[in-house]
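User: Mind token order:
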Amino acid sequence: MPVVNKEVFINATSVEIFNFVSKPSNLLQIWPSLEEMKEVKLFPDGGYNFFWKYKIHGMHFTGTGECVDIFPHLWLSSKTHGSIESTTTWTFRTNINQKTMVTLTVDYHIPSPLLRFLAESTISKVNDRESGLILENLRAKFEKVMSK
């Protein structure tokens, strides 16, 4: 299974960033190909489940997702099921300057119908690029908020 791993420093605490990304509906603000997040259920322990809709190269994919591992303000992992199977893990490490290293790791399985239309290397490049955009969008969100 292909894996994408990206990191970025963000001028915010891990608590602030974790609180944002741990709510699945917030991901619509930073994840370019994520089109819909609905039926989100948040649980008292910080976990959640949801229905998602994703678009890549004009093709739509749907499924469900759930939080499978969570340690508040340090990391969380979620799995998606359906058209695309994946595990997304976020980790957060704040340094003494209150900047946080955010790591996004996405381990995914490319469905065979999609492979008929797109080469695996093309999909991998798109996912690599999109993961970078997700982190840049996250950084812009927090650094824009902080500069006001």
Observations:
- The longest strand covers residues 59-71.
- The chain has three helices and seven strands.
